[in-house]
Amino acid sequence: MRRLMYEARAQLASPVRNPRTATVIGRLLGLAFLLCFGTGLYSHFLQQPLPWMTFPTRPAGLYQVTQGTHIVAGIACFPLLLAKLYVVFPQLFRYPPVTSFADFLERASIALFVGASLVEITIGLLNTYQWYPFPFPFRQVHFALAFVIIGSLLVHIGVKLPLIAAHWRAAPADGPEERHPVDTNAEDTAAVALAVTKVSTDEGLSRTGGITGRVLSYIDGAPDLPARTSRRGFLTTVALAVTAVVGLTAGQTLAPLDAANVFGPRKKGVGPQGVPVNRTSAQAKVATAALSADWVLTLAVGGTERVFSRAELAALPQTDVDLPIACVEGWSQMAAWRGVRLRDLVDAAGGSPDSDLRLISLEQRGGFKQTEMGSEYVRDPLTLVALELNGETLDLEHGFPARMIAPGRPGVLQTKWLSRIEAIDA
Amino acid sequence: MMMATTSPARPSRRMRAARVVLVVGGALGLALGVYVLVDTVALRRLPGVALWIGGAIVLHDAVISPMVFGLGVLTRRAGHRLAGGIIVTVQAAIVLGSLMTLLVLPAIAAQTLGSNNPTVLPLDYARNLGLFWLALAVASGLISVWLYLRTKRANQRPSRIQS
C-alpha cells in the first residue's frame, strides 16, 4: 500500500505540481471566492435585510455590477478550481494518510472544502440555467455552503501560511525542488520517488507486478515534456480557459461582450420588448387578474386607503428613467421606463416618503409575491411605478398593468403585477 | 530571501498569530455555515446535500483526475516525435474543449427538458459548442504547424540546438 501510494505520487509528479503554482492559482481562486462571497452577501441582504440596514441607491447600476461580478467570478472558479485541484492532486496519495488528530481534522476540512466548493459552483451554474436536478433547495444551500467554504478557506490558508509566504514571490531561479509534488513539509517526495525507482531497477527487485506493473511501465514509456514548456503550457491553458468561460458568457450582462455571448444563459435583447424575463405571467399565474378591467393599485400609506385605476395612474405626471433590470442570475438589460414617481404617488395617497413600504403582487405564490422596500428607495427620484417599457405599454410578461422599477435593486424585488403598496410602520 | 524560497521560513511570532487567527476564524465560519445549513434546510434534505458533496469529491478524484492524467500520458506518447510545444498546444485545446463541454452540457440538457420561459437559454448551445470545438481544432492545428515548421527550420541549421 505504502509503495503504491509512493508510486502514484511519483507518477503524478509534474513540473507544474509545485508549491509555487499552487500559490499562484490559489491566490486567484481565493480572490474569485472572496468576490463571490462579498457580492453574494450583498445580494442576500438586499433581499433579506436586517432591520438596521439601508443600502445605497446610486450608482443606479450597482446591483448590475455586483451580481454580474458574482456570476462572472463564479464561472471563472470552474477553471481555477480544477487547475488548483490538478496542482495539488498528488497530495491525495500521501502516506501515511493521516499522521495525527490535527492532521486528520485538516484533511477532513480539505475534503469538505473541495466537495462544498464543487457543489457550490455547480448548483450556482445550474441556477443560471433555471434547472434544479438536485434534491435540496438552491438558495438556502448556496448561502450556507458559502460560509462553509470561506471558513474552510481561512483554515486552509492558516495551515499553509508558511508555505504560501515562502512561495508568494517567484524563486529567483529554477531551484532543484521544482519537480517536487506540492507540500514538501512531510518528507522529500521526489527523493522517495527516486528511491523507489532505484530500488526496483538497480537492486533487481521486481516492480509492482501484474496489470498495475504493466500500466506503470506503459506510463513510464511516455516521454516527459521539458519543465519550462510544461509550466508555461499549464499557465497559458488556465489563462485561456478563464478567458473563454468568462468571455463567451459575460455578454449577458456586459454590453461590450454581447457579440461574444454564445454560451450565456440569457441574451441581451431577447424577450418581449427586448428585455428578458425571469418569471413569466404563466409561471406566476397572474394573467387573469392582471388583464382584468377592474384592476386597481391600492395604496395604504396614509391613514386611509386610496385606489388608482391604470387610467388614473397614467393621468398623473409621468417620468422617464433609464434603469437596468439586473437579475440575481447574473444577466442584466438596460431599458427605458416611463411611469409615476413612487414618492409622488405616496405623497398623493397621503403617505410619507420616509416610511418603508411593503409591495404586494398579484402573484398567488412564490417567494417574492410580497417584498419590502426601504425608504431610501422610496425617496429616490428614479424609483417609478412603471407603466411603459421602451416606449410601449408594459408587456404582461414585464408586469402589466404596473410594476416597480428602482435603482440598484435585484430584479426579483422589482415587483411585477403590482396590486397593493402598504406603509410598514403605518 | 534565498532561504525563504528554499524552505518555509521559521515561524515568526507574527506568522504564528496570523495562523491562529485564520484557523480559529475559519473554524467559526465553518461552524456558522453548518448551523445555517441545519437551521434553514429541512432535515430530510440534508442527506441530499451530503450526497452531492461526497459525490463531487468522488467524481473529481476518481473520474476527472484519472481522465486528465490519462490524457497527458496518451498525448505525450502519441506525440513523442514532436516538439513539446505541439503536445502542450493539443493538450490545451482538449482541456479547453472539455471544460466548456462540462459547463454547456447542462445548458443543453435543461434546454432539451424544456422551459415555459422562452427567454431562458435562448441560444443554440449544441451548435455553438460544436463550433467552439471546431475553432479549437483549427487554432491548435495552425499553431502546431507553425511550431513544427519552426522546429524543423531550427534543426536544419548547422548548429543544432534543438533535439
TrEMBL record, chain A:
Keywords: Membrane, Transmembrane, Transmembrane helix. GO terms for molecular function: oxidoreductase activity. Pfam families: Oxidored_molyb (PF00174). Residues 293-425 form the Oxidoreductase molybdopterin-binding domain. Gene3D superfamilies: Oxidoreductase, molybdopterin-binding domain. The chain crosses the membrane at residues 21-45, 65-89, 110-129, 141-159. InterPro entries: Mopterin_OxRdtase_euk (IPR008335), OxRdtase_Mopterin-bd_dom (IPR000572), OxRdtase_Mopterin-bd_sf (IPR036374). It comes from the Bacteria. This is Molybdopterin-binding protein. The lineage of its organism: Bacteria, Bacillati, Actinomycetota, Actinomycetes, Micrococcales.
